[in-house]
Amino acid sequence: MDKLRICMAGATGWAGTELSKGIYRSQDMELAAAISRSNAGKTLGEVIGIEGLSAPIFGNVEDALQARPDVFVEYTKPSVAKQHVLSALRSGVHVVIGTSGLSSKDYDEIDEVANNVNRGVLAVGNFALTVVLLQKFAEMAAKHIPHWEIIDDAHSGKKDVPSGTARELANRLSKTQESKLDVPMDEIDGPKETRGARLQGTQVHSIRLPGYVISIDAIFGMPGQKLILRHESGTSAEPYVSGALLAIREVSKLVGLHRGLDSVMKF
Ligand SMILES: NC(=O)c1ccc[n+]([C@@H]2O[C@H](COP(=O)([O-])OP(=O)(O)OC[C@H]3O[C@@H](n4cnc5c(N)ncnc54)[C@H](OP(=O)(O)O)[C@@H]3O)[C@@H](O)[C@H]2O)c1
Q1: Is 126 close to ligand 1, i.e. is its CB under 6 Å away?
Q2: pTM of the full predicted structure?
Q3: What's the gap in Å between 31 CA and the centre of ligand 1?
Q4: For a designed S-S bond to 123, which of 17, 97, 202, 255 qualifies (C-beta 3.0 to 4.6 A apart)?
Q5: Ligand 1 close to Cβ of residue 38 (< 6 A)
Q6: Residues 6+ apart with CB under 8 A from 67
């Protein structure tokens, strides 16, 4: 069986390096090309310290797509992610998006192009299994508890707000119902910002402080009781690898945009 050929944008980054190693270790896929502006012209193996990993690094998406990959993995920054994804789709390549910070409008446009070119896009705000489980538990809770809010904590250097995990969770919960506000936003006394941002029917509060890594709380409140679903990430990118490999293996079975790893998992 031919190996799946992967082109990864951001293969030299914190998350991309770990995934590159995971792809290198896999029997059924290989890295055909990588994108990193500061390492263009080198091989990926030279940069991330794997002898024998000869995938060339390019400085832009157009050159990298000349390697004719089967799947394009986007793991860079939200400011450039949409352009990368649309270029890959227009070259007939399926796409896995790990980058966080794309807006609902970006996803609408990506979905339209993916459907037009009959290719699949799997966008996963968080590839970790424990986060996938938190999402499923939160969806169950939202069917029974109409009041909830999300708190998204991260280190002070994380620029994108809220996190991809929080955006994805808000998007999922919106499919069940909008979270109820007993005092509507236009009836609040005081600065409205303190109540967070309303994202697809959920109040989301982002904290960015030194001392935090990354965590998320989905809080469901009922009179006299509350349910808090909390996920905490460590400092390693390892927990994201197996979910990303699964997404890469499955994305070519999809057409259009699908969000969340559970689109390709059995529960
Ligand atoms: N879905 C998940 O489970 C998950 C897990 C971890 C991280 N993430 C998300 O993944 C993204 C990457 O995170 P990270 O921590 O790995 O970032 P990082 O360490 O800063 O790495 C970014 C990578 O993207 C490349 N890059 C940046 N800007 C680029 C541009 N304009 N054109 C081409 N390449 C560019 C960088 O190389 P050059 O600077 O050399 O170009 C580098 O290889 C973030 O959005 C993060 O939130 C998602």
Answers
A1: yes
A2: 0.90
A3: 17
A4: 97
A5: yes
A6: 5, 7, 32, 33, 56
